[in-house]
């Protein structure tokens, strides 16, 4: 389906070669570039922060989609705007004021996303749908690439019905591969994040594999 966008997660890329990795996945057909920011506090893993994301910016010609797995979020919003994020997604579970956070992300000039951990129900975003450009449905517990897919198709269907004709993307992240992608797309997701399923078997020196993997999803 041409309306489905694939957003490779550079969490599965070579951390010593992000610029080339980003250029490779875009040349091989990535629609968006998904950037996983982890703080070692909200999730039990640590990746990179605003200076690194700013360094990625000139390499991204499509959409730089930044998934914050950090708490708190609000003190960092301006730094990610300055870093050049197009979409900035915060977890609903990261603090008591997600409504304020989404307002602040838009006020800083970015598209606003709200992410839901597997245990968080679809209803939690009922009062946020006019403030969000994207709802991210996690299909793993956030923190690591390469985990087993958790079936959230019921949540995706519920969100699609709640969203109605609003221009809100449903993004899915975690364990997306050629087997699970049709399930989540069939339930109504339109932006599919994939890390290990895109990068496995390839490298910056053999990026054609990335293209084959993207087309297989
Ligand atoms: C997990 C991250 C994901 C991760 C997905 O916490 O948010 O973006 O990179 O990796 P895969 O596709 O390997 O499950
Ligand atoms: Zn992610």
From TrEMBL:
Organism of derivation: Zhengella mangrovi
Active site positions, chain numbering: 36 (proton acceptor), 173 (proton donor)
InterPro entries named in the record: Aldolase_TIM, Ribul_P_3_epim, Ribul_P_3_epim-like, RibuloseP-bd_barrel
Record-annotated membrane-spanning stretches: none
Protein's job: Catalyzes the reversible epimerization of D-ribulose 5-phosphate to D-xylulose 5-phosphate.
Catalyzed reaction equations: D-ribulose 5-phosphate = D-xylulose 5-phosphate
Record-given protein name: Ribulose-phosphate 3-epimerase
Cofactor(s) essential for the protein: Mn(2+); Co(2+); a divalent metal cation; Fe(2+)
PANTHER family the UniProt entry points to: RIBULOSE-5-PHOSPHATE-3-EPIMERASE (PTHR11749)
Gene: rpe
């Amino acid at each position: 389906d041409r309306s489905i966008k694939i957003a490779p997660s550079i969490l599965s890329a070579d951390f010593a070669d992000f610029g080339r990795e980003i250029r490779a996945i875009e040349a091989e057909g990535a629609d968006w570039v998904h950037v996983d920011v982890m703080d070692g506090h909200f999730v039990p893993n640590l990746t990179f922060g605003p200076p690194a994301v700013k360094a990625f910016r000139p390499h991204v010609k499509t959409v730089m989609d930044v998934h914050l797995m950090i708490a708190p979020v609000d003190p960092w919003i301006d730094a990610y705007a300055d870093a050049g994020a197009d979409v900035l997604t915060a977890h609903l579970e990261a603090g008591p004021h997600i409504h304020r956070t989404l307002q602040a992300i838009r006020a800083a000039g970015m598209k606003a996303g709200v992410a839901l951990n597997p245990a968080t129900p679809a209803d939690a975003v009922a009062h946020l749908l006019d403030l969000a450009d994207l709802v991210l449905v996690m299909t793993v517990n956030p923190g690591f690439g390469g985990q087993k897919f958790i079936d959230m198709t019921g949540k995706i269907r519920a969100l699609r019905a709640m969203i109605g004709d609003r221009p809100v993307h449903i993004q899915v992240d975690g364990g997306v591969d050629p087997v699970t992608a049709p399930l989540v797309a069939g339930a109504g997701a339109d932006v599919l994040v994939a890390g290990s399923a895109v990068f496995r078997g390839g490298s910056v020196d053999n990026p054609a594999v990335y293209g084959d993997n993207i087309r297989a999803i």
